[in-house]
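Input sequence (169 aa), recorded before submission:
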Amino acid sequence: MLRSRLFARLVIAATLCAPFFACAAPNIIYVTRHAEKSAEGKDPDLTAQGTARAATIARMLGKAGIGALFSTPTRRTLQTAQPLATQLGLAVQTYHPGQPAAMVEKMRPLPGPVLVVGHSNTVPELVKLFGGGVVAPIADDEYDRLYQLIVAADGSVTTVLLSSVVAPL
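Predicted structure, token format:
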């Protein structure tokens, strides 16, 4: 009798708490390489195609609840993050590309979705450091990968590969 009352109370408590657990969203981290860059100079700007891709990323993530944006200090990465930052009224925070682990630790306590913009040689490492596992290397002429890392309450990470497709100019 006592055991059935306890079980009934647990069922009622679980039923009452279920809506609260259903509303708890996991943290989401978006990681992408900068958009297409000019071949000119040591710190090149985005090309017209790259500017269009940055705008596409802003449209894609504009309603994703992004609360923070991170970029290396290069022009091409900052220009990739800036349309979304402008749309959301947020500042782009910079990180050192040679210290990805430090950036990951700085970002971990932040609530809600974030965007991290990196380079072809840093994005795979960032995905791995965030718990997303090993991903294929990014070729020099590849700009369309956008990783969505969904961090569950138990710390497990689901990696989704999205694409930031832009119509040719």
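Checked by second reader. Residues 123 and 141 are 14 Å apart (CA to CA).
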